[in-house]
Specification:
single chain; 575 residues; alpha/beta; five-stranded parallel β-sheet; four-stranded antiparallel β-sheet; 19 helices; binds adenosine-5'-triphosphate; binds zinc ion
Length: 575
């Protein structure tokens, strides 16, 4: 949604006399010169001192895999750019956030690294203001509404929330102070119109750490002639009529886009950050500018050590990324009407997080069938362990060996730039070998059984999928949820039946319930001794259903029931 150009569009738009040099593209295309350009880029990266995680990750700062070194042992500071909240989130967003959620889960649960993650919510921006004007609703209300929707969508996709969401509008004084310090440090200037710009020339060739832009740019954001250099970008924008504004030393206005992230990330993590993430469209200008601002503010050589960028989600056959601005999107809410969160996660897991991904019915089918194979395997293995499925003798040693090899391959794949397709290949191969061993027989008398090895395989696979956020038992739960209407009717019938039995028991002369209603309450009466066991059975049923979350209340001759929030709470001893 941003007024930014992608790297490809940048490269395409270069004019022959332009001195801009997009090294990331050149590294791939021009072998002879690329070595120099790339090694220059690499030279600029300062290998962080600290704790080696044993993981290698592709770092956009060097355009190659680097060992992931953290400043503090077992802790990764992680900042991510969140959404601009003016509309429903779409599958492009889902893809980026689910992919990074998977990476964070791997770091935390497989490699024991505590990920300290902060995400910004861009709640003031041109698009939000425009939407507010169109809808005649305050832009602040628009932002809150869609922020809530975003959070609900993330929850529905089982994306673990960051430890803090930070709103731009709640950090304006910090942003103003941040800009003031950049000006004091000699890296920004004000204009007569109340705008503040970052002075890219003041940092020389350091501008372009991510995409290696050098020289006078004619591709920067427009600045109405007030900019010293076309690459300079706005830190503070003077407000226009009808726009929300905040007071500042430069007059009424609001922050530029890039400065929000630099300020908020620095306010939490200070002058050093381990990992910064976002979609690849954010690399330039957004992350490039974040780097320039932070290093100018902190007067440091390297603020963020690793920049991780996820590839775009496209609709199959389209070269354009799915995007709100292009109106070629499927909302997360619509998607979840047809598919589950588990299926989307599988869809993400089957490609590397950095690659572009095509969304289509075929790719979703692939995800669904992988999930179905895993589920079927879980069920047949459980049946075998429980003795419901009788099979030919199993080559135990072979399976133990396959399990050990899978564990090694999965870990090695994930330590190599979070290669989830490789890890999933290893898992599915283990499923295949295990399935081959489960050859059913009709009569199993005397046949040796090997439940322990299947138990080990089952628990490894289900734990591993759980680490990635795929709950293989979830299918049962959603199935149970689908059948909740049926269960409701069953409980209704059960309670009605119990009620009739109870009324019969308490009726002195076998009178009808209608007669009883007219008379005194049956609860005050004593059952005839021969009917006492029936009353005890009714009481027992009420008591037994309570810990299961069904609370029956006897009210005269009728009984009502409800599902309790706390299934195990049986404090209520309503008669
Ligand atoms: N199609 C996509 N594929 C992958 N990631 C995406 C896609 N679209 C957006 N993202 C990522 O989602 C995050 C939030 O995006 P943001 O709300 O800032 O703008 P946007 O969705 O790109 O806007 P628009 O859809 O209007 O182009 C960013 O990290 C962005 O890179
Ligand atoms: Zn950002």
């Amino acid at each position: 949604m941003r007024p930014c150009l992608t790297l490809v569009r940048y490269a395409n738009s270069l004019r022959p006399n332009c001195r801009l040099n997009v090294s990331s593209e050149l590294c791939r295309t021009r072998k002879a010169t690329s070595r120099t350009v790339c090694s220059e880029t690499r030279k600029r990266w300062i290998k962080p001192a600290g704790f080696d995680t044993g993981i290698k990750t592709f770092n956009s700062l060097t355009k190659q895999k680097e060992p992931l070194l953290l400043a503090r042992e077992g802790i990764a500071t992680w900042y991510s750019c969140g959404p601009t909240v003016y509309d429903d989130s779409h599958l492009g967003h889902a893809c980026s956030y689910v992919r990074f959620d998977i990476l964070q889960r791997i770091l935390t649960r497989l490699f024991g690294i505590n990920v300290t993650h902060v995400m910004v919510i861009t709640d003031i921006d041109d698009k939000i203001i425009k939407r507010g004007l169109e809808e005649n609703i305050s832009p602040f209300v628009i932002a809150r509404m869609y922020e809530e929707e975003f959070k609900k969508d993330m929850l529905a996709l089982k994306v673990l929330p960051p430890f803090a969401y930070m709103r731009v509008t709640e950090n304006i004084p910090g942003i103003v102070a941040f800009i003031e310090r950049i000006i004091r440090n000699g890296h920004a200037y004000t204009t007569g119109q109340g705008d503040v710009y970052f002075d890219t020339q003041s940092i020389g060739s350091r501008y372009g750490k991510l995409v290696n832009l050098s020289g006078a740019g004619e591709l920067g954001e427009p600045g109405g002639g007030a900019k010293k250099d076309l690459r300079d970008f706005v830190l503070w924008k003077a407000s226009k009529p009808l726009e929300p504004y905040w007071e500042s030393p430069w007059g009424r206005g609001r922050p530029g886009w890039h400065i929000e992230c630099s300020t908020i990330a620095s306010s939490v993590f200070g002058s050093q950050l381990d990992i910064h993430s976002g979609g690849i469209d954010l690399a330039f200008p957004h992350h490039e500018n974040e780097i320039a601002q932070c290093e100018a503010y902190h007067k440091c050589d390297q603020w963020g050590n690793y920049f991780l960028h996820s590839g775009h989600l496209h609709l199959k056959g389209s070269t354009e990324k799915m995007s709100k601005s292009l109106r070629n999107y499927i909302t997360i809410k619509d998607f979840l009407k047809s598919y589950t969160a588990n299926e989307f996660r599988l869809f993400c897991l089957l490609t590397k997080y950095r690659s572009a991904i095509d969304y289509s019915a075929a790719s979703m089918n692939e995800a669904q069938s992988t999930l179905a194979s895993l589920s079927a395997f879980m069920h047949s293995t459980q049946a075998y362990i429980q003795g419901h499925l009788q099979c030919q003798p199993v080559q135990e040693a072979f399976l133990w060996e396959r399990l050990a090899a899978t564990r090694t391959n999965v870990r090695a794949g994930l330590a190599d730039d979070f290669d989830t397709p490789k890890a999933m290949d290893a898992i599915m191969s283990l499923v295949h070998h295990s399935n081959c061993q489960l050859q059913p027989v009709s009569k199993a008398d005397g046949i040796s059984r090997s439940p322990a090895v299947f138990g080990a395989v089952l628990s490894y696979i289900s734990n591993f999928m759980d680490v990635l956020g795929v709950d293989l038992l979830d299918r049962k739960e959603s199935h149970a949820a689908d059948s909740s209407g049926v269960l409701h009717n069953v409980v209704e019938q059960l309670v009605r039946f119990r009620s009739e039995v109870r009324n019969f028991t308490l009726s002195v002369e076998d009178r009808s319930p209608q007669d009883l209603q007219a008379s005194a309450s049956p609860q005050r009466q004593k059952p005839r001794p021969d009917r006492a066991p029936l009353l005890q059975a009714c009481d027992a049923l009420r008591k037994d259903l309570m810990p299961l979350g069904v609370q029956i209340r006897d009210r005269g001759t009728t009984s009502t029931w409800e599902i309790t929030q706390q299934p195990r709470d049986n404090r209520d001893k309503d008669s």
